[in-house]
Specification:
Strand 3, helix 4 and strand 4 form a beta-alpha-beta unit. The protein has one domain: Alanine racemase (TIM Barrel). The two termini are 29 Å apart. The chain is α/β, with parallel strands linked by helices. The longest helix has 22 residues. Helix 1 packs across helix 2 and helix 4 crosses helix 5. Bound molecules: pyridoxal-5'-phosphate (PLP). Pyridoxal-5'-phosphate binds next to strand 8 and helix 9. The site of pyridoxal-5'-phosphate (PLP) has 14 residues, from strand 8 and helix 9. Belongs to the pyridoxal phosphate-binding protein YggS/PROSC family.
Length: 242
């Protein structure tokens, strides 16, 4: 329902603006997370964001295949596409061709593969290093101590642009408890930006905890549910996402 989407977008925008004001920080970028949503839902939200004056709304997808289908369906929209799901090396070529940003770079092999496959006619691929900030066994992302090495490898690639860090903290039921992880990310980001001033993006915060993430310096929040409504309980999708 366009009306519902408009109201949700307005509510999310207000939350972001208010959180930034409270934290006395610039208003972060909104990444609309479209997993499980079809292209028409994305198109409706994109139209609203364009009407609100955003020149190039950012959308995030978890799967290369799903993103390719949606990007084809929305080829007219001036959308900035971000990959926010785990990337297998054998999909690096397709990802390097399709996306404007890859937020989930967590190993040297992926750096090399994305650089090799980024088409010469495109701008350098923007990349974020994904950090496993809670040191969870099952999670993707590099260890915090591996960030400098990966950053050096990315910065050495002219076909890649090192833009910062991304994290998905452990889903603690109390958002305040996630704030400690966000604070550790902020420290890691500040250390990175001191060395690489082009690193200007800290991607963290989702529907349930974007206020806490913004308080700790998020410059980009990734929001699905609060924009599109609850996802259908699709266990297959959930399992694939983890
Ligand atoms: C699904 C997802 C989000 C959005 O989560 P919501 O709680 O629906 O806002 C953000 N980041 C990643 C990596 C995701 O997979």
């Amino acid at each position: 329902m366009p009306q519902d989407t408009a109201q949700r977008l307005q509510a999310v925008t207000l939350r972001i603006v208010n959180a930034a004001r409270r934290a006395d920080r610039p208003v972060p970028q909104l990444l609309a997370v479209g997993k499980t949503r079809d292209a028409s839902e994305l198109a409706a939200l994109c139209a609203l964001r364009l009407a609100a004056g955003e020149p190039r709304p950012a959308f995030g997808e978890n799967y290369v295949q799903e993103a390719a289908a949606k990007a084809a369906a929305l080829a007219d929209g001036p959308i900035e596409w971000h990959l926010i799901g785990h990337l297998q090396s054998n999909k690096a070529r397709q990802a390097a061709e399709l996306f404007d940003w890859v937020q989930t770079v967590d190993r040297p092999r992926l750096v090399a593969a994305l650089a090799r496959h980024r088409p010469a006619e495109r701008a350098p691929l923007n990349v974020l290093v994904q950090v496993n900030i809670d040191d969870e066994e099952s999670k993707h992302g590099c260890r915090p101590e591996d960030v400098p090495g990966l950053a050096d490898a990315i910065a050495a690639q002219p076909r890649l642009a090192l833009r910062g860090l991304m994290a998905i903290p452990a889903p603690h039921p109390q958002p305040e408890r996630r704030r400690a992880a966000f604070a550790r990310m902020r420290a890691a980001f500040e250390a990175l930006a001191a060395e690489y001033p082009q690193a200007d993006t800290l991607s963290m915060g989702m529907s349930d905890d974007l206020e806490e993430a913004i308080a700790e310096g998020a410059t980009l929040v990734r929001v699905g549910t609060a924009l599109f409504g609850p996802r259908p309980p699709d266990n297959a999708t959930r399992a694939r996402a983890e």
